[in-house]
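Build the 3D complex.
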Amino acid sequence: MNHPHVVAQQLSKSFGKHEVIRDVTAEVAPGDIVGVLGKNGAGKTTLLELMLGFTPATSGAIQIFGRDSFKMTNDTKSRVGFVPQQDELINQLTAHDQLRVIGSFYRNWDNALIQKLSVIWEIDLKERVRNMSVGQRQKLSILLSLGHHPDLLVLDEPVASLDPVARRQFLEQIIEIAADGRRAVVFSSHIVSDIERLANKIWILKDQRLFWSGEIDTLKESVVRIHVRGKGLLPKDFEIPNAYSFSLDGAYAVAVVRDWTPATHSRLANGLDADVEMQSLTLEEIFLEMHR
Amino acid sequence: MNAVLRLVMVYFTGARVQRWMSLSTLILLTFGILGLWNYSALVLIGPKSKISGGSIAFSALLVMVPIIGVLTLFFSAALMPIVFGHLARTKQLHALPYGRSKLLISALLVLGIVAAMFASVVKALYVSFPIDQGPVFGKAMVIAALTFSPMYVFLWLISRAKGALGSLGGAMLIIPCLALPFHFVQIPQPSIRMPLVIGAVILVACAAAFLMGPRWRSWAPSVVLKWNIPKPEIRSKYRPGSEFALLVGVARPWMLSVGLIFPVAVATLFVTSANIWLCYLMLCSVICGGISSLSVSRSRSLWLRGPWSRSQLFSRLEALHWRQNAYCISVLLVLLVAIGSHLGFRTSLLAIGIPLLLLGAAVGTYLGLMMTRGIGWLDSMSAVGAMLLMLVIALYAADMPTAVLVGLDAAVIGLSITFRALAQRRWTQLDWVLCRSAARRESQSL
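Done.
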């Protein structure tokens, strides 16, 4: 049986009186690509940093490869790759030297992979880091996190500065990484369409809590828009359970609901003697509805 | 005008601590100036004192209150150079109507307010003295403007310092700040004409450079092309084995130590006193050590990449910074001996300088390594305490009994050991999120 790469149990983090993460319980299993979504300040970066042991948990626990992330051993560290939100590159070095510096920390650094990716991603390795564009720096940061074939890749808004072509190339690379079933990727992004395209699991942070976690397909099946067309006027006190939003206009009502099941569907249709039509939502629409 | 006043308000009340300082300033200066005006120091301590018993103590209080008021006023506007420097470099300023002029006026207004308050205190202080009262206010104002304007530049440089160069630049400015006004005060019949002319020329030149900066920059590329001036670039080449030092920014310790020569060379133009030299070189050693504070947040990138625990990271960083300190202290010692020989310092002073520079570097290094989060009042107070002790040693070492000197040195050694123990303990629980947020707060305030 495959052990999860990351296990968080009732994890909380506060800075003074300011609570950033509250009571988060989640897992990352091998083969998972987890997209972390949340508004600004929802605690995405803090959650990722807790995972990597940059900061201690206030309460609860988070383990990475079976060990407390705050006391990671060298073996554990060598299995982790990380792309920070703001790069930590050395401006005075060339990209090539920067890669050599970071590569020297790992025994299994794959120069061939780096060479291949730098050609595909059009990174000029002779260029000095300070002269690189923001997008080029971002690509280099991502490259630095891939060279040692990490079993767990953690990316904090990795594609924010990339053009659409580079983003697509990056996403393909991530899919390739997770394809062998042993490795896992956790990444946060505000580009919801990327998460939708790439992730098989999703964590949505809201009000410092893990508001929703699970398979992305399950989320899309469970949160739907319902159109109710009555044969006559719909009752004024009519309500749809578990609705994020609801509006009623005579014989027509529309709502976005969670935990939608075929049983709920037929119950509603029969109870009102109305046509009930279900419409799937995109992840972005679901996210917006959750934050209304 | 609204924008100028709004900016001035921000300078004095932008942060919570400044609001308190501004309020304290208002109270201190009001009571201080009124007190001095009504009961001038001369009357109080003279034979016809209006207040009997304890009048000397009361007089001292009357003098201290407005002086503290002026100091708090200076620091309550400490946001001015930081906000000014930040806005001056933004593209937003180009889009604002008369943005540069308004920003400049607001800064000059603050400088004017601070200098005028200082001059008012001086005027009140000398109001009963049998001297020509006419030029007192004007002279005090010029001297204050000359003193405070570079001090604000110094504050800006220190706030921008992300590396050794900024810190050294700031340290370099301390000397003219402290030396220039006193130089003119010491002249028997002080005339403010010369400092006034020099100050006005510098001010006008700086203001013109600030206002015309964008236009000059648009001309600059053609000039550069015409003269074909190569763009200077600090290059760094990676040598295997230096990865750790490279990632925390101490791979080239010789660069910092060579950089020390420049501010010391500038200081030779102003400083001749042996004690001031000891102070200055000690300050340089503290700054060199204090650069360790920059390594704290940089060490984050090493955490995931190496076999080191937080304690081991601390030990390696400590060793690297002492390697850098060794370069710097060597250069400072050579400079101390060279300057001492040239100016004829006593051998005993040179001997005092050696432990003082070592202690300065130790205090700076461990205070820097303690900065794993925002600076608390305990950190600030202990840092100020250590600095005061070292300043006392530097200034009065020559006249001190050996036992007292050894006692003071022992106290600083004790503080250094305490700082090290505190730093080591903090590193075992190092939270890079707190480091980063402190660093971010600083960068946002720039």
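The domain at 6-219 of chain A is CATH 3.40.50.300 (Rossmann fold).
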